[in-house]
Amino acid sequence: MNHTIKRAALFNASCLALIVTSMTFAVRAKLEGVLETDFELTSTDIGLAFAPAFWGFTLAMIIGGPLVDYFGIKKIVWMAFFSHLVGIVLTIFSSEFYSFFLGTMFIGIGNGMVEAACNPLVASLYPENKTKMLNRFHVWFPGGIVIGSLIGYLMMDILNLPWQLLVTVLFIPLVLYGILFMGKELPKTERVAMGVSNKDMWKAVVSPLFLLMGFCMLLTASTELGTNQRIEALLSDTGVSGILILAFVNGIMAIGRGMAGPVVKKLDTTGMLLFSAVFSCIGLIWLSSASGGMVFAAAFVFAIGITYFWPTMLSFVAERIPESGALGLSLMGGLGMFSVSIVLPIMGKFMDADSGASTLSYVAILPAVLIVIFFFLFLKFRGQKIERDVKGEEVLS
Description:
Blueprint: H1 3-30, H2 32-37, H3 43-50, H4 52-71, H5 73-92, H6 97-125, H7 130-137, H8 140-158, H9 163-168, H10 171-181, H11 190-193, H12 198-205, H13 208-229, H14 231-234, H15 242-258, H16 260-266, H17 269-287, H18 294-307, H19 309-320, H20 325-353, H21 356-363, H22 365-381, H23 392-395
């Protein structure tokens, strides 16, 4: 098998693993009504049952990051596979709070392990094209949400099939990514291939630049994930379905990430981040005052803004702080998911005291802060070439 085919197979396997991750978000959202009726859970109980999806994800990424370098990407991929398998099975056979909670916890851990393994894998497979390929990889987070939402709507709303069959659909991408990874030799992470010591890795993740980017990750992820998680309530007074807007936004994100190549050529990572912050801020401000059909126009601008946030933040760290290795990428992803647990209660307090529109205007403060930070980073790194690079052939040797 030649080098190009091997890279393509491993990249496709990674994308399928991310589809499992993102589909679980859509499937879980669809099961909220089931938990209310069949399981007879309160809204508080449902919130507690969903919680492991976020902290399990964060925990797995923070633990999985260092383990990727120590044990190799392959072992973490299989930890993700078996965590997903156990979580899906437990969810299918759950009938009350604790069994559903346990299933959600294993799925959350599997999701985190996918990010912990596949982000450094993609960066190692395409060292010469990290930003473009990480964006293409992350097409399948919004893409999987759209797929899961449409399948859920078809199976439960149109065909009126049992909810267990919807969860069973997750086995399709799970089995496919297991088959594609089976028997494959996976590359070493860039940090290991570069011969960077553990001491230098830990130095890198406490460097001022990494800490600044970690702070920015809290704001970028809160802007994206926090808003999308509460979109229906935030837009309740606009006369437009929040679920339709969610599907619309994620569809645009998937298309935008798939077309990241030309954007990368025109803008480097700092330029892309500045572009994202500006459009996110404008989109949120517009959404806070839009109604009717104009909500879709404002949502389009917001979607353009958040499209490149998550993968480009990871790309920046992979390119500018490669010594941080898989740990650096995992910490960034973990901080991003952890931000959801921070921002949602704050948004809830605003929404209890005021309208969804006012809350959106408050959220716009986050990308406004990012505009300032990314503008100075853009000036600092403009025109600078990446100093360290590892050829794909060397990585895969």
